Structures are given as structure tokens and as C-alpha cells.
Amino acid sequence: MSLDKIRNFCIIAHIDHGKSTLADRFLELTGTVDKRHLVSQTLDSMELEREKGITIKLKAVRMNYKYNNEDYQLNLIDTPGHVDFSYEVSRSLAACEGAILVVDVTQGIQAQTVSNVYKALEANLTIIPVLNKIDLSSGETEKVKKELIQTFGFNENEILKVSAKSGDGVAELLSAVIQRIPSPKGIINNPLRALIFDSFYDEYLGAMAAVKVVDGKLSSELIKRKEKIKFIGTQNISVPEEIGIFIPGRKRMDNLQTGEVGYIATGLKDIHSVRVGDTITLENEKVEALPGYKEVKPFVFVSIYPIENDKFPQLREALEKLSLSDSSLSYEPENNSALGFGFRCGFLGLLHSEIIQERLEREYNLTLISTTPTVEYKVMLTNGTIEFIRDPSILPDRSRIAAIEEPWIAMNIVTPSKYVGNIVTLCNDRRGILQHMKYPSENTVLFEYELPLAELVYNFFDDLKSTSSGFASLDYEFLDYRIVDAVKLDVLVHGKIVEPLSHIVLRVKAVDISKNLLRKLKEIIPRQQFQVALQASVGGKIIAREDIPALRKNVLAKMSGGHRERKDKLLEEQKKGKERMKSIGKVEIPQEAFRQILTS
User: Fold this and answer.
1) CB 4: neighbour CB atoms within 10 A?
2) SS3 assignment, position 309
3) Which residues bind GTP (predicted)?
4) For 457-490, what is each residue's pLDDT tens digit?
5) Known binder of ligand: residue 568?
6) 262 known member of a binding site
7) Residue 18 among known ligand-binding residues
8) Per the count of CB atoms within 10 A, which of 123, 188, 194, 454 is most buried?
């Protein structure tokens, strides 16, 4: 098909504004999926996506559509809306020339709406603003239209109104896609250059690259001749097994030409060899790599252990399989004296962490325990070297540390104006620095804050929802590292450090955090035959203490009478026995206790 008949576009929006439902209507209207086989959220094939009503993985699909008696090829990429999966959005934008911005008229502009518009503008995409759910009586269509005009500068006549559920206005939107979004700008006679915007794994074909062909073409004839392809970034070389498109299932094709979106079965057995953002060309061609997008690194780190230690091999296998379809998941093995063998995993956010853990338990029948989420600290040592610390237990001795830096984020919060005071108080308490405060409309406020990532990890999202009655939304991205006066907080049970409970905390908050943690431990750890000391220390100095009293046993209960001396003798023997137990006794903390303390 000629380039001027191809349109590559994605749908971007805040979570739950109707992206997947709109994609369903597109599939129905273009006849891509038979109406009998169409289900709600057709492109959300994962069980958790349907259950939670959110998109987790981007999905590409080719649709053929007749407009003014001419055939057009529409390549749609459905994107997630939650902030934890914003890296998926950036990947979609790299493969498109235009974007449909969906805004729910019952909710208006939200934090992810703002973030997505800026990302689309940075990528020089044509944006089609769309008001969704116009069929609902609770919607404020005119008010939200004014918000879009004031916030982003759209013209009133370019804003479309649709109901993704009923289908009203969807045909007009498809017409606008053809009229407004430019066709791809590639040269078919140039050497092959294809941008990898997603990767996944097939059990039989190996690593699969979802690509947009920017220049040149790839044909089945090349595959038959066993010609090799080259990955410019990694310098890997392979013989492709198959090429095709998504409709939305995979369909084998003879050609992938300039401007088209499809997949290449690379034949490689390691998914990490196919790096998203890399450029594919033919082995003997010398071409420049395409500008990819910035690679997003994990933000949040959590240690995951199986409750039953003999399930460690199953956990390793499960993580290996999950990482094949989620290249953003990182993991490395670790051993802990209290919890046994497990993995230190890196995630893009708390929801990403929750989704992965839920998939591990559901799909692989594992019962897991996870540690408190932490962030990656940058530690400058006195000898001039720099270390990145993800696990508090491996923080170097204080005498070797010159400075510690923590990650900061740039954060957008959108909230109704009546919650302004609550939001400001919350952000100030969490060390936030206000950069800008805007009013997209008289009843809506947009905050731009800088905040330490560690503050976001520790229940910031829950506190934000509580203080705003659930109406506030946030979006964030990594900013930089900044100096912080942080210390390692160790917890000692009966004189021994319990590594899973170690934290990196602010020095000024160390005492308060210690007291709260020890109070929880006192309630959870079972009582012993001897008194157990719970202590919190910083740099070897004890800063808080709680004692678990010994179990009381009445050794005089069987004595109906007798001399005082006999009773004193028994009590003295009991006292000596307790002291001996205290000196040589060990406190075994049950894993259920860890589960309670780490999830509370």
C-alpha cells in the first residue's frame, strides 16, 4: 500500500477514561474483529487487565478501512493509562505520527492527561482531542472543552465528541484520523531501518520484535535466502524466522514495507537481545540508528521470597518467564538468613510491583513474601568511587561514606480546588518543593512539585487519595539525585540484626520510625521462655528499645505446702535457668510474623 494511505496512531489518556472501549469500537467499525467475537477490552488479553479494568501492556493492531471509496491502512497502538506504565506510552509515541487524546467528560483533565500531551508534543505528533462519555448525564462536556482549550490551546472546532460505549461519533473520529494525521515519511528504496517499539517471547519462534518500518522493506524472500538482520544498538545478528502483522492476533505476511507496523520473529533465544528502542537493518547495510526514546530504569526495588523455601527453583523459573514478556522487570538472586533464598526485583512503580507479584502467585501457584519497597541510593565513598545501593543491608560502613544522594521526581498533581490546602500540607510534610500552581479551570488546580522518590514509595498515593476524597491524580518522572542526610536503621532481635527489617531513613526521622517499628514487632513476635529485647540502632548506637516479657510459669503450682526455703530454692533455680536460656537462647521469628510486619 502506498505511504499516503497509511496512518499510524495511538490512543492516550488518563486511566479509566475509555481508551480500550474506544479501541473496541474501532475494531468493530472497521470489521477487523467479527462482532460475534468482540468482547469488552478486546486488546486487553491479560486476565489481570480485564479484572482490574486497566491496560498494562501496549497492543498494536492493523485495521483496513474504506474512506471516500479508497482503502486505508490504520495501525492503532492502544496504550496504558496508569503512571507506572508510562514507559509503554513513550514506546507507542515513537512508532506513530499522531495520537488521539481521550478525556472523560465526567472527570475532566487528570495528571496523566497533562503528561501524555506533553510527551506527544515532544515527539512532534499531531493530536486529536476527544471528549468521551458524552452520553452520560453526569458529564460536563462544555466545561471540560473549555479546560482543554485553556490548558493546551486547542481550537474549539478541532475537539471531537464521542461515546465509546454506544459508538456515537466514532465514525467521524476515524475520518478525522485520516484527514488530520500525516502519513509516514519514509523512503521505500532506502536500506531497511525498523524501530523496535516492543518485544515479547514466543516459545517456538524465540524473541519477537514489534517494529515500525521507517525506511526500506523486509520480505519473505530475504528470509528464504537466510539473509541476516543486524541490531545496530547491541550489534547482535540473527536470521529472522517470520514477519507479519497484528490483527490483533499474529498474521504471517510476505512483506513489511515503509510506514507499516508489524513483527519480526528474530530467531534469538534471549529476549534481552532485542532491546526496545533499537534499530534493525540488514547485516551488510551501514545506516544511522533511529532516534529511540529514553530508556526507563526501575524506580522501586522489592525483595521477593517464597514462603516454602523448596519453591525457590519455581520462583526463578517464573521470573524468567515473566521477564520474557516484560523487559522492564529486573531481578537478581539474594540470600537472607531469616527468609532464605529469594530475588531482589526492580519495578517501575508500586502498581507494577503489585501486578508482577499477583501474576507470580496466580499463574505459577506460588505463595510469596515481599520486603518493604525501597529506592536506589547513590553513595559516594571516601575513596572517590560511586555505588548504587538498592538493598539497605549492603550499605557500606558510615566511615567509608562521603555522601548519600537520593532520587527525586518531578510530579504533577491535578485536584479539585477545594482540596488545595490538604494537598499542600501533604506535600510539605513529605519534603515536596512547589514549582508551579496553575488553574486549568476555576474548580481545578494543577500542582507541579519536586519530591523525593522515597516519600512517594511510602504510601504517598494512599495519603493523596485520602486527603482528596479520591479525586486527585498524579503523574511523575525521574528528575535527578540530591544529597540527603540518610542513615541505615538496623533492627536487632535478642542482640542479632534482622536484615529484612533494615531501612535507609532520614536521620531526623530515625527515632520515630524505630519506635513505631518496634511496637509492631512486639505485638507480632511470639513470647519466649525468656525476656527478648527488641532494639533499633543507627551506626551501632541504640536509639529505641522494646522488651517482650518472658512467658510466666508457676513452678510452685504443684507444691501444696512446704518450707519457705524449698520454695525459694525452686524460684532461684528457675531464675538461673531463665538467665541461661537468655544467654544461649535463639529467637526464631516465624515467616508469618515477617509477612505481617512487611505488609502492614
Assistant:
1) 12
2) helix
3) 16-21, 132-135
4) 877 888 888 888 877 888 888 889 999 998 888 8
5) no
6) no
7) yes
8) 194
